[in-house]
Structure formats: C-alpha cells, structure tokens
Design brief:
Layout (H helix, E strand, L loop, with lengths): L4 E2 L9 H12 L16 H17 L6 E6 L2 H13 L5 E6 L2 H10 L4 E7 L21 E4 L1 E2 L4 E2 L10 E4 L16 E5 L10 E6 L16 H6 L9 H17 L2 H21 L3 E3 L10 E6 L5 H10 L2 E2 L10 E4 L6 H18 L1
Parallel strand pairs: 1-13, 3-4, 3-5, 5-8, 8-9
Antiparallel strand pairs: 2-10, 6-7, 9-10, 11-12, 12-14
Helix pairs in contact: 1-6, 2-6, 3-4, 7-9, 8-9
Bound molecules: pyridoxal-5'-phosphate.
C-alpha cells in the first residue's frame, strides 16, 4: 500500500497498529472465534473493553475523583443539547463564547432551553482569532466554549478563568495536550477527531453538578441515565469504543499526553514556520491563536492553485482542502499524524516556491 499522508480534519487519521488490531477484532475478537461486532455488549469481553476505555481516559487525563467518564452516541452535536438539558434550568441564562461554526451550533441548542448570552465572539473577523478580555457574568449558569476550532484553525492557548462552571467542547484537541479536568464541570468530545472512529462521544462530567436544573430531561439526554448504567443504558457503539480504547492504549504506550503534546508542538512549529517563511503562503488566523491541530492557510497568488494542488497530490498528501467556509487549505495534524507527513508537506511547499516563487 502506498503511504498516504492523511491530513483529514475528521474523521481523522488513526495509528496504523490500531487499525490493524481493530480489523483483526472484527473477524476474531479475543480468540473467541466471534467478531467484536457480533457479541453481546453485556459479555465479559466487551464489558472489559468499556472499563478499560474509561480507565484509560481517567489515567491519561488525570481525571479527579467525583468525575464520571461516559461513552455515548449522538456526536458532539447532541452534546450541545445535552449540555443545555443537564446544566441550564429552563428559561435561565448561560454564557457562551462564539468562536466559529461549532460554537454557533452549541449556542443554537442552548436556546432550546433558555437563553445563550454570547459574551464574546470573533465573528466580526470570520472567526480568525480567539476573543480576549471579556467579562464573565456571575449569574450565568455556566460558560461554554470550544477549545479548538476545527474549521477556522484557532485554539484557546489559555482557558477562560471563571467563577461559574466551565463546559467545553474539546472534540478536536482532547488528548493532544495536558489539561486540568478539575477546572471543568463537563468536557465532551466526538471521538472522530483525535481518539477513534465516528460513532461515540466522550463525556467527562462532575457528578455532583448534575441533577440540579429541575428540567424534565428526556431519558436518553439525561447524563444520569448513562452514569447509572455505566454507559450501557442502551446498546453502546461497540466498535467505536473498542477502537477508541486501542488509540488510548497506543497513546499511553507513547508516554501519554505530555509526550504527545511536545510532538504536536513540533509538528505545528514545522508547518507554521514554513507558512511564515514561504512567500507563496499566508496563514489565515492570528498567530498567537493558531491551532496546533488544524493549520489554515491560503496561497498569496490564487492563480497558482492548480499548480500547488497538483504538487501535493503527487506527493500522496490527502485531505488538505480547506473547509468551504474558509477556503484555502487546512492541514490537520492530529495525534496519529507522523511528523514525517508534515515534513513531506513542507517539502512540497518548498519545491513549489522554487518552481513558482
Ligand atoms: C467535528 C466537531 C463537532 C461535531 O461533532 P459530531 O460528532 O459530528 O457531532 C463539534 N465540535 C467540534 C469542535 C468539532 O470539531
């Protein structure tokens, strides 16, 4: 198989060894002569997978006592609504920071229950920066933000310091760097950006913060339903959870989040240095807010687009077309992307400059 350098923004690249183990388990799981996806989720073998996955999350992120780790369905997009149902009493107000497409969608869902007070936004500049210097109202029920803006290519380098509970959509940078889970009432993340395949969503929630809204919460949206049943209230997405578990094992084997954080910083530095050095390219977002996961950039001379596209395609690079709302290019450098792939992209950018600069 020719090596493809996969810069896809999501679903994203996963480690080769994870894909190999996952494919084996689909045929014969744990030498049961049965497939992972045809055994009972209540079987000992799968219950172990679920427990192992949850324990790996706790270990890798140093999750403190009092937090529950859940693997649910519905994507981060349902997380927007679950956030409101579980934390926003009907008719009351929560604070939101609007940093792009996903944050806007979260705001819209909060409006189903109460009021979303957008206390800061970067919409005025097509979300090309992270807002700073805003006040956080003490009477809002929580502050919600998106730690990494997958589409725009911005990332919070410092999280908001808040007296009200913090809730964060970390879909596209969870496990990419060290965080302090204890600062949050809830973190949630769709698996398919940095942890596994699409189909499961991770929730890390402070248990004592739940059950306080007085809302009449539909059973499946109530996080307490899933806590009581250890994420097995209904049939869990067994394959997505298994592959997530394998990826977390892989991450642990590398040395954990602090090690991958350094590797991710090196990859990001390598690419952004080239974007800044090379006169044919320009970054899209404010430098200090650049995402280490998704680098957005454009050509300084649009008429060379076909020539550049041909060059990166010839180098077996895949997935760097920008999101339609931003245009240009977006190179996503999630945990499993090797530094060599970034080097290949940088080399293409250099050859492009030699040829057309
Ligand atoms: C992809 C993404 C989502 C949407 O996730 P789904 O699992 O597809 O619902 C939400 N937030 C962020 C930051 C994302 O990158």
């Amino acid at each position: 198989m020719t090596k493809v350098h996969n810069f896809s923004a999501g679903p994203c690249i996963l480690p080769q060894e994870v894909l190999k183990k996952a494919s084996e388990a689909v045929v014969n799981f744990n030498n049961l002569n049965l497939s992972l996806i045809e055994i009972s989720h209540r079987s000992k073998d799968f219950v172990e997978v679920m427990e192992n996955a949850r324990n790996l999350v706790k270990e890798l992120l140093n999750v403190p006592e009092g937090y529950q780790v859940l693997f649910l369905q519905g994507g981060a997009s349902l997380g927007f609504l679950k956030t409101a149902y579980n934390f926003l009493p009907k008719g009351e107000t929560a604070a939101y920071i609007n940093t792009g497409t996903w944050a806007s969608k979260a705001i819209k869902e909060a409006e189903q229950l109460g009021k979303a007070n957008v206390i800061a936004s970067s919409e005025d500049k097509n979300f090309n920066y992270i807002p700073k210097g805003y006040g956080i109202p003490n009477d809002a029920k929580y502050l919600h933000f998106t730690s990494n803006n997958t589409i725009a290519g911005t990332q919070f380098k410092n999280f908001p310091i808040s007296r009200i509970p913090l809730i964060c959509d970390m879909s596209s940078d969870i496990f990419s760097k060290e965080i302090n889970v204890g600062d949050f009432d809830m973190i949630y993340a769709g698996a398919q950006k940095n942890m596994g395949p699409a189909g499961t969503t991770l929730y890390i929630v402070k248990e004592s913060a739940l059950g306080k809204t007085g809302n009449n919460i539909p059973t499946m949206l109530d996080l307490q339903t899933h806590i009581k049943k250890d994420s097995m209230f209904n049939t869990p997405p067994v394959f997505a959870i298994y592959v997530s578990m394998l990826t977390l094992e892989w991450l642990k084997g590398l040395g954990g989040v602090s090690v991958i954080e350094k590797m991710n910083q090196e990859k990001a530095d390598l690419l952004y240095n080239e974007i800044d050095r090379n006169g044919l390219f320009k970054g899209v977002v404010e430098k200090e807010d650049r995402s280490n996961m998704n680098a957005t950039f454009v050509l300084t001379n649009d008429s060379l687009k076909d020539q550049f596209d041909e060059m990166w395609q010839a180098a077996n690079i895949s997935g760097i077309k920008g999101h339609r709302s931003v245009g240009g290019y977006r190179a996503s450098m999630y945990n499993a992307l090797p530094k060599e792939s970034v080097q290949v992209l940088v080399d293409v950018m250099k050859s492009f400059e030699e040829k057309y600069g």
